[in-house]
Amino acid sequence: DSRRTAYPVNGLRARLTSFVIPVHDSRDTLSGAVITPDVVPVGATAVSFNVTAVGTTGANFLAVTPGDAATNNASTLNWWAASQSIANSSISTLDSSRQVKVFIGSGAGSTHVIIDIQGYWM
User: Fold this and answer.
1) Virtual CA dihedral for 78, 81, 82, 85, nearest 10 degrees?
2) Angle made by CA atoms 105, 1, 60, in degrees to the nearest 5
């Protein structure tokens, strides 16, 4: 949750940027503290997740990819205006460190990003 300063990735995410999020640990939703380490275990190859854009500043999109991806091929979530909160569920493969990367698109808008992991594949 990029709205929380305690999380590794925080702050409004600008257009044409990307950031890597480790998804292996379960974290407290307010403090960001690790609750359960390795809830997505070593050897996991993909995750099911819900991604939410919150506090958008204009139209744009985001794409969730494996953490080591250099580019993205398709959007995961699109929004069309400022001040939206919008979510979508999807599946992404992981990199070997159990991370995903979020790319913010070329539209005018920035956003906060929340990712909730729903499950994983081995």
Assistant:
1) -50
2) 20
**Dist. CA 29–CA 26, nearest whole Å:** 9
CA nearest to 104, candidates 22, 35, 16: 16
CA dihedral of residues 20, 23, 25, 26 (deg, nearest 10): 110
**Residue 94 and residue 84: Cα distance in Å, rounded?**
28
pTM (two decimals): 0.92
In the predicted model, what is the mean pLDDT of the chain?
94
For residues 35-64, give the mean pLDDT.
Answer: 97
> Cα 45 to the chain's mean position, in Å?
16
